[in-house]
Amino acid sequence: MGKMKLSEFISSNRDELIGRCRAKVAKRSAPAATEAEIDHGVPLFLDQLVNELRHGPSKTHEISKSAIRYGHDLLLQGFTVSQVVHNYGDVCQSVTDLAMETGAPIATDEFRTLNRCLDDAIAGAVTEHARGQQDTRYGQSDELRNLINTAITAFEVLQTGKVGIGGTTGALVSRSLMGIRALIDRPVAETAQAASPPVSNSER
Q1: Kind and range of the H or E element at 199?
Q2: Which residues touch 96 (CB under 8 Å, ≥6 apart)?
Q3: The three-state (H, E, C) secondary structure of 53-92, written as one string
Q4: pLDDT tens digit string along 38-90?
């Protein structure tokens, strides 16, 4: 690749990278891969990644917004959050694998951008997937369960080593834990009052 930038490398090998991600998805367990899973999320993420490599971080957070929609869509199709996370991880792995195979060095700052975009995408998808899962299961959002599920899922992502603890996914764990603590620390009287039935006029 010589001095070719990572954005140019991805653009030049876009079809190859999508094909590698498609192959990785097809090998995974049920539910079976769908056309939407393979052909929507990965190409969109690659295009947004190239844009950020060329122009810097998006002020409108397009990667996170797209990941939220992607996580929601895959939840409705029966995919687990682990599968959603793996889909984004496949992109990073495919880029680094192809770069190594072709002897194409990735500059440190560009690799950081790649990891940051991956981190933002995973955090967005995890947040929406956890929220949507609670809505589907209980009919309405259960705030505490949602926070716990989000914290656990995001922490499991950190354990894979795909993203660093100091990024967006790590911040998601922190926010979820702080939210859990805030709920637990609500005054007992406030909780009791909300749960108490109204007093009728005859009882006064």
Answers
A1: none
A2: 106
A3: HHHCCCCCCHHHHHHHHHHHHHHHCCCCHHHHHHHHHHHH
A4: 666 788 888 888 988 988 887 777 888 887 777 777 767 777 777 777 778 88
φ, ψ (nearest 5 deg) of residue 172: -65, -40
Residue 97, pLDDT score: 92
Instruction: List Cβ neighbours of 141 (8 Å cut-off, separation of 6 or more).
Output: 131, 134, 135
Read off the pLDDT band of 126 (50, 70, 90): confident
Give the pLDDT score at 201: 59
Instruction: Scan for tokens 């998808």, then name that residue.
Output: 125
Q: Return d(Cα 120, Cα 157) in angstroms, integer.
A: 12
Q: Give strand ranges (E) for the chain.
A: none
2: left (phi over 0), alpha (psi -120 to 50) or beta: left
The CA-CA-CA angle for residues 189, 191, 196, to 5°, reads 90
- Of 190, 66, 182, 77, nearest to 118 by C-alpha is 66
What burial letters (b/e) apply to 22-48, b meaning 16+ CB within 10 Å? Answer: bebbeeeeeeebeeebbebbbbbbbeb
pLDDT tens sequence across 86-110 = 778 888 889 999 999 998 888 889 9
**pTM score, two decimals?**
0.70
CA 201 to chain centre: 52
